[in-house]
Amino acid sequence: MSTSTGTRGESVPTVHSAYPADDTAQSAGGIDISALLERGRTLSTPVLRAAVERLAPPMNTVAAYHFGWIDAQGRPSEGDGGKAVRPALALLSAEAAGAAPEVGIPGAVAVELVHNFSLLHDDLMDGDEQRRHRDTVWKVHGPAQAILVGDALFAVANEVLLESGTVEAGRAARRLTTASRKLIDGQAQDISFEHRERVTVEECLEMEGNKTGALLACAVSIGAVLGGADERTADTLEAYGYHLGLAFQAVDDLLGIWGDPVATGKQTWSDLRQRKKSLPVVAALAAGGPASERLGGLLAADAKSSDFDSFSEEEFATRAALIEEAGGREWTSQEARRQHAVAIEALDRVDMPERVRAQLVALADFVVVRKR
């Protein structure tokens, strides 16, 4: 295994040397990752668009803008709709239970709607002006629409999932509701951490497990539940998704400081600008030593600064360099790989077609080897 230790814009942790350190189309096992993601997008998008069309105007067009289907003027667009990892996982989840991938479509759409509900609200709460290389919804359509459309997506997610009226749909809805509550818990924790001088690594991992792990865990179990899987199988698939979510978030935390803005679509040093207590920051502060102590002093002063918003690029670069010097970047890279390994181990406890297992492993590799 290797890690990236260079400057902003370089790749994040690699899982094994045969896997290119980039958003790649092929895994080391020859599995076409792009095809897996495209299948999830292709099968779920028509149902997703139909769900959005249920919303009253102008919420339907605001949501369409958020998903990249139209531009700010309402013209058809081919905007970046995201990686579509969750829909891909939901379809594979159904196959892991021995069902056809199409069985997982309502779950894939429901999870994607909840995920985008959280993005709409998070962008507003965090003050993010850019997502996927475009102005965020609150920036274009105002905070009220961002709140309303997010709420509407959350509501319609449950409609889509429960429409079949089956016992399996009810079981799936319970898992989605629990995951949504944990996601909101995680966002509340994340916001509260911004106002604290110190956060422990354990607290940060708990927050990220809620904010990111819970919904990915749901995505990997919801298709199986719809396909009739028992609770033990669904719970084990959730364990894979939960630890994959922690790996995913660890990589996001690295990209939030050192990611290339051209790839991420966000500002340089974006998490530092928001004073986020992400894993690299928390790990660096917990490490001790001169760099850690200097970083702690700077961040404590930042919290009281009245001109923080006018900080120069050099000031943020100094903080990023101290985080790296204190070991926060390396620790987070290692944590991403550790969580990846735990996720893969969970798959060994599920009886599933070997082809599906290989695809789930390949998607896990993709999650921890990316630039956006």
UniProtKB/TrEMBL annotation:
Entries under InterPro entries matching the protein: Isoprenoid_synthase_dom_sf, Polyprenyl_synt, Polyprenyl_synt_CS
Keywords: Magnesium, Metal-binding, Transferase
SUPFAM superfamilies: Terpenoid synthases (SSF48576)
Pfam families recorded: polyprenyl_synt
GO MF term (any one): metal ion binding
GO biological process: isoprenoid biosynthetic process
Disordered as annotated region, ranges: 1-23
Domain of life per record: Bacteria
Protein family: Belongs to the FPP/GGPP synthase family.
Family annotation (PANTHER family): (2E,6E)-FARNESYL DIPHOSPHATE SYNTHASE, GERANYLGERANYL PYROPHOSPHATE SYNTHASE
Name assigned to this protein: Polyprenyl diphosphate synthase
